[in-house]
Design a protein that fits this description.
The complex is a heterodimer of chains A (113) and B (138). Chain A is of the alpha/beta class and 113 residues long. Chain A is built from five helices and five strands, in the order αββαβαβαβα. In chain A, strands 1-5-4-3-2 form a five-stranded mixed sheet, with helices on both faces. In chain A, helix 2 links the parallel strand 2 and strand 3. By secondary structure, chain B is of the alpha+beta class. Chain B has a single domain, classed as 2-Layer Sandwich (Heat Shock Protein 90), CATH 3.30.565.10. Helices cover 36% and strands 28% of the residues of chain B. Chain B is built from five helices and five strands; from the N terminus they run E-H-H-E-E-H-H-H-E-E. In chain B, a hairpin with a 2-residue loop joins strand 2 and strand 3. In chain B, helix 1 runs antiparallel to helix 2 and helix 2 runs antiparallel to helix 5. Classes of the chains: A alpha/beta (113), B alpha+beta (138). Chains A and B meet through helix 2 and helix 3 of A and helix 1, helix 2 and helix 5 of B.
Chain lengths: 113, 138
């Protein structure tokens, strides 16, 4: 599924430029960055409430497709600029992390391995 | 042979990951496959973070020699009292600042060991800790 399609499904708003061809192949949610470092995978959509610089670094090191911020959480300043530079899409959604995971699962996006 | 040395500053969370990003870029240019690239980047990032969180600062050295990548972290102290305990998943001495950033889950050292093809750790209180990791890229 493309990031753009996923963004529509979760009623999201992109905070960075969207690469319209980039696809999401799996999903993961966790706010412990050490945990995500161990379990993250390429082309994943990562749902987290964390919005600092290290979130972008972790997503970039794993070649993730996008970071999704639930419950209208936003990202600003340097982390957002870094995400743009690294080609990591950042989306914000009014839905909770639980709801976003539910939508992704129903659409057949498996959990990251 | 390619060699690079990066300085890691205690408590500098904003710049943590810059060395790893640079290492990843260098290896990508050399055509290292993406799966190996990620293993090295994860181990490197954990190493950087460990020095930011737990040490008084240190250096991360990258050596690329034919089909092997060697990463060595050297910090200025205070050293690890019980290395076996520190190597256990879930064991952490991270402070509240680190935990607020989402670190301190006690996954750093085990994650480095899991991703490296060779892993060695030497520590002396209060002198510091050295971690040597090797990765086959051939």
């Amino acid at each position: 599924m493309t990031i753009e399609h996923l963004c529509t499904l979760i009623e999201g708003k992109p905070l960075t430029t969207l690469d319209t061809d980039r696809t999401v192949v799996s999903g993961y949610t966790c706010d412990l960055l050490s945990w995500v470092m161990a379990k993250g995978s390429p082309d994943a959509a990562w749902i987290t409430v964390q919005t600092h610089m290290n979130v972008v670094a972790v997503a970039a090191l794993h070649d993730m497709a996008c970071i999704i911020l639930p419950e209208n959480i936003t990202m600003e300043g340097a982390p957002l600029e870094k995400a743009e530079e690294e080609g990591i899409a950042v989306l914000t959604s009014p839905k909770s992390a639980y709801e976003i995971c539910g939508i992704m699962m129903c659409e057949g996006i498996p959990a990251s391995e | 042979m390619i060699q690079a040395k990066y300085t890691v500053v205690r408590g500098d969370y904003a710049r943590a990951g810059e060395a790893s990003a640079d290492i990843k870029r260098t290896l990508k240019q050399l055509g290292v496959d993406s799966s190996t690239l990620r293993r090295i980047a994860v181990a490197s990032y954990e190493s950087e973070l460990n020095m930011v969180i737990h040490s008084l600062g240190g250096t991360l050295t990258l050596v690329i020699d034919n089909d092997r990548v060697k990463l060595t972290s050297n910090d200025l102290g205070p050293g690890i009292f019980d290395v076996n305990e520190a190597m256990q998943e879930g064991y952490s001495t991270a402070d509240d600042i680190a935990r607020n950033y989402g670190f301190g889950a006690g996954m750093g050292l085990p994650n480095m060991r899991r991703n490296a093809d060779k892993f060695a750790i030497y520590s002396m209180v209060p002198d510091g800790t050295t971690i040597e990791m090797e990765f086959n890229i051939g």
